[in-house]
Amino acid sequence: MARAIDIPDLVARAQQGQAAAVARLISLVEDDSPALPEVSAALAPHTGRAHIVGLTGSPGVGKSTSTSALVSSLRQQGKRVAVLAIDPSSPFSGGALLGDRIRMSEHDTDPDVFIRSMASRGHLGGLAGAAPQALRVLDAAGCDVILVETVGVGQSEVEIAGIADTTLVLLAPGMGDGIQAAKAGILEIGDIFVINKADRDGAATTRRELRTMIGMRADTGDWTAPIVLTVATKGEGTDEVVDEIQNHFAYLTESGELTRRRVGRARREIEALALASVQRRLGEHAAGTEQLAAEVAAGSLDPFAAASRLLDHS
Amino acid sequence: MARAIDIPDLVARAQQGQAAAVARLISLVEDDSPALPEVSAALAPHTGRAHIVGLTGSPGVGKSTSTSALVSSLRQQGKRVAVLAIDPSSPFSGGALLGDRIRMSEHDTDPDVFIRSMASRGHLGGLAGAAPQALRVLDAAGCDVILVETVGVGQSEVEIAGIADTTLVLLAPGMGDGIQAAKAGILEIGDIFVINKADRDGAATTRRELRTMIGMRADTGDWTAPIVLTVATKGEGTDEVVDEIQNHFAYLTESGELTRRRVGRARREIEALALASVQRRLGEHAAGTEQLAAEVAAGSLDPFAAASRLLDHS
User: Fold this and answer.
1) Distance between CA atoms of A141 and A115, rounded to whole angstroms?
2) What's the rounded Cα separation, in Å, for the pair A267 and B303?
3) Res B123 pLDDT > 90
4) In whole angstroms, what is the distance from residue B28 CA to residue B134 CA?
5) What is the secondary structure of B223-260 as a DSSP string?
6) Element of type H or E holding B110
7) Residue of A nearest to B41 (CA)
């Protein structure tokens, strides 16, 4: 049995910015702890301040280096910063992100930088259920900006736009990145585009291609996604990215789009949690389900009627 | 508005083996029709006869050609056969499978062969919800053997084992197929292994590697997965595959494993349908959800409490 956790104390200590309390709370999210509803209720009044910035891009574009450079630039402005790396494919945290952690080591001793990796596989609500809760912990801990990135590619790269206020899409010159981006659908979700490794051949071409593709996007209101060229390893262009992040936040706030995005995020989170709760309840009725399944397998009951009975009795 | 459908008549005509009625019923499954519970209830008493055989394997191993050769071999024994190709990534049916259909054209005019492709993306219950219902249609239509394959790779390749009585894993010599199979987890799910294109170099090596890996599998009861070498384009080895399919069915029946697998399948189907039904109900409460989401975004309500309220009111 787990020890009883003093949730109000844990939340109070997280609010004071104590790293151990923040880490503990995120672990509760990761582990799908039964204490989560209580945690969530205790956090709610202290949330809504942080600007959540999602970073997405194919492997090899320099995502971790860019994240680290952004952290440096934000710290120079005195901001409290968090980095949340989500691994949707792994049931384990930590290991896969060792590389990132090493590259982040310059920020390790800074008490105003939280760096955390989290596994979401196996979490009943998936990425959509787990990530917003972890973000809420970091938000309540007084972070001004939370950088979120996913490990790996595919669906999760697009999902990140669903949990962020502002989405940064990272590209690198050449390698048909532009076309690949369009294919993956990440072109549609970018609020700011960053062409990293801009000291390499082809940066201008990639910018031109990208500009054309951005021009063909569906209406995105009064915001036209800027393209920033960076060399993250040297910190070049990073301050400009931070400027654009702040411009976008101002746009979001003034246009009312911030509220729209956050309400949309809350809606998806609520639905994911509701479904997860039903899934858990169904799991608790294993014996009854097995009996219904036997009747369906024998042809004496149809699966729709069985599903309906299962819901009635769970 | 859709015309009212005479379900009992449609099911009766499907039972007589009328291809148009079978196709119509599968379209209802694909479209997630509101008539599905009625269809399902009408089909239930006529199901449980067909032997469901899943085919899985990486692109390039000759899956379609093998399927077509298996159909020929089963037809020579006078069996009524169906082929169900499921595309979990596409919201559309037909198009993506045109290639398969051309290769299947030799069976097009045979009234005892049903060939059907079905899209499962967008289906609320996903592959696990849609496929068993389509299989039930083909089962009630008097098919002796139903060959199921998925288009594309990844998770769906493993999912197919969850809906089949017998799972065939297709490999081809060389190209590190053995190791790839192990990685994808399809090695664990194979009841019968087929090395197609066995007239190419490396077939003996692939068989040897495969034999070793099968030897390392967790206990699979009294059944040791056989390895059959085929050249599907020439029909070589196909009769032997059919023999092994029938051997496996006999083993399943005698050991009680058939019932266990079918009850497991029914259980997953019931759970998928129950969740889909909750999801649909939540979707019908969009306005209420939006209100709750606004409160969560404002920090005046936490998402767990919101999810709980949503479930109470839907």
Assistant:
1) 13
2) 9
3) no
4) 9
5) ----EEE-BGGGTBTHHHHHHHHHHHHHHHHHHTHHHH
6) none
7) A302
Distance, in Å, from the CA atom of A152 to the CA atom of A58, rounded to the nearest integer, reads 8
On whether ipTM exceeds 0.85, the answer is: no
Query: How many CB atoms are located within 10 Å of the residue A212 CB?
Result: 10
CATH class as words, domain B48-255: alpha beta
Compute CA distances B233 → B65, B80, B103, B147, whole Å.
Answer: 6, 22, 11, 18
CA dist., res. B4 & res. B11, Å (int): 15
Q: Which of B117, B42, B160 is nearest to A304 (CA)?
A: B42
By three-state DSSP, how is residue A160 classified? helix
Question: Quick check: pTM over 0.95?
Answer: no
Measured between CB atoms, does A154 come within 8 Å of chain B?
no
Q: pLDDT tier at B93 (50, 70, 90 boundaries)?
A: very low
Chain A partners within 8 Å of B11 (Cβ): none
Please indicate whether, in this complex, the C-beta atoms of A259 and B297 are within 8 angstroms of each other.
Answer: yes
pLDDT more than 90, % of chain B: 48
Q: Is A7-255 CATH 1.10.238.10?
A: no
Query: Is B293 touching A (CB cutoff 8 A)?
Result: yes
Strands (E), chain B: 51-56, 81-87, 113-119, 145-150, 166-171, 192-195, 227-229
Half-sphere exposure of B194 (CA within 13 A, CB side): 34
Question: B270–A292: do the CB atoms touch at under 8 Å?
Answer: yes
Angstrom distance (rounded) from CA A248 to CA B122? 33
Burial pattern B262-289, b for ≥16 Cβ within 10 A else e, equals bbebbbbbbbbbbbbbbeebbeebeeeb
pLDDT for res B94: 38
Give the ranges where chain A is alpha helix by DSSP (H).
7-15, 19-30, 36-43, 63-76, 98-103, 126-140, 155-163, 177-184, 186-189, 203-215, 238-255, 257-283, 286-297, 303-313
What is the domain partition of chain B in residue ranges?
48-255, 271-313
Separation CA A138–CA A166 (nearest Å)? 16
- Please report, for residues A23, A48, A68, A97, A106, the alpha-carbon distance to residue A102 in angstroms, rounded to integers and kept in the order given: 18, 31, 10, 9, 8
Interface test with B, best of A257, A304, A312, A313 (most B CBs within 10 A): A304
Q: At residue A96, does pLDDT exceed 50?
A: no
The candidate with the shortest Cα–Cα distance to A263, out of B313, B300, B282, B308, is: B300
Residue B259 dihedral angles phi and psi, to the nearest 5°: -60, -45
**What pLDDT, in 10s, does the model give residues A171-196?**
888 755 555 555 556 777 899 999 99
* Phi and psi torsions of B123, nearest 5°: -65, 130
Q: Which helix (H) or strand (E) holds B23?
A: helix B19-30
